[in-house]
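Incident review: delayed structure delivery

Summary: a single-chain prediction request sat in the queue longer than the usual turnaround. Root cause was a stuck worker, restarted by the on-call engineer. No data loss occurred. The affected request and its eventual output are reproduced below so the record is complete for anyone auditing the incident later.

Affected input:
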Amino acid sequence: MGGAAWRWALRAARLLPGAGGGRAPAARRGRPGCAPAACAAPSAGSAFSSSGDEALRDKRARILSRGLPKQKPIEGVKQVVVVASGKGGVGKSTTAVNIALALAANDSAKEVGLLDADIYGPSIPKMMNLKGNPELTPKNLMRPLKNYGIACMSMGFLIEETAPVVWRGLMVMSAVEKLLRQVDWGQLDYLVIDMPPGTGDVQLSVSQNIPIAGAVIVSTPQDVALLDAHKGAEMFRKVHVPVLGLVQNMSVFQCPKCKHETHIFGTDGVKDLAKTLGLDILGDVPLHINIRETCDSGQPVVISQPQSDAAKAYHKIAMEILRRLPVPPA
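Output delivered after worker restart:
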């Protein structure tokens, strides 16, 4: 891994001196087992308790007065589309990759980027057949790696392929902020963000810090996946991100020999959820071995087999997304 990129990753996690990490100076830590406030307290009793409660109330008031962070657009990016799911293992990253490629294929004049926001389990480098470290511009911004005409950025470019990211929440949030703000995206019409599973810190941070044109929720028809997909859709509504619709992934398996169709994960579960939420179904993607094989080989099906039924399904989803996006800024 390049030295500059590695130092950037460590700074993102506040692991280098001068980056805000590390232990507090010894003079400020106080005695073992003694909280700093207690050590500094001139006396105990009700007076200290009262002053402590007042300080806590003041702190809460200051935090509440700040409100939500002000959204700031990503420089050079016209519209952001997030692809999310409540549960892992439903094909969200595969869907995000093929949607990005389908958006680019729909109009060759449009520039599309792909951001892998899954810090713990980045998969975009493998699916997009990209390796190496991003170069740094004179302004100390990272240049995305590019393949199939798509500009890509991922934590997977900054760490070894098999190295685990053993970071706490604040370190992950700092890394996400760097991936959003310290990347030279150039001029993009669409930035597709592959969100991690769940409804946690990363989802909230991305949703509250940048304007998002719309969210796409991916789920299989399985009841367990639908429960989490419902939560994911409600989360975006709570943070005022428009949900463009749902994608029913792995909807049906067709035997390659006898052509018999089997609904392995259930029938029309995502369609039923869409009715409950008052949302649209953007499309159905079958459970097909070609989708898995092409992503594993770094040649997604939209690129390698553009005339296949699977590729056509992703193109339909991309068209439905474009229909629902607001008019982009000039």
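Verification: The chain has 13 helices and nine strands.
Action items: add queue-age alerting; document worker restart procedure.
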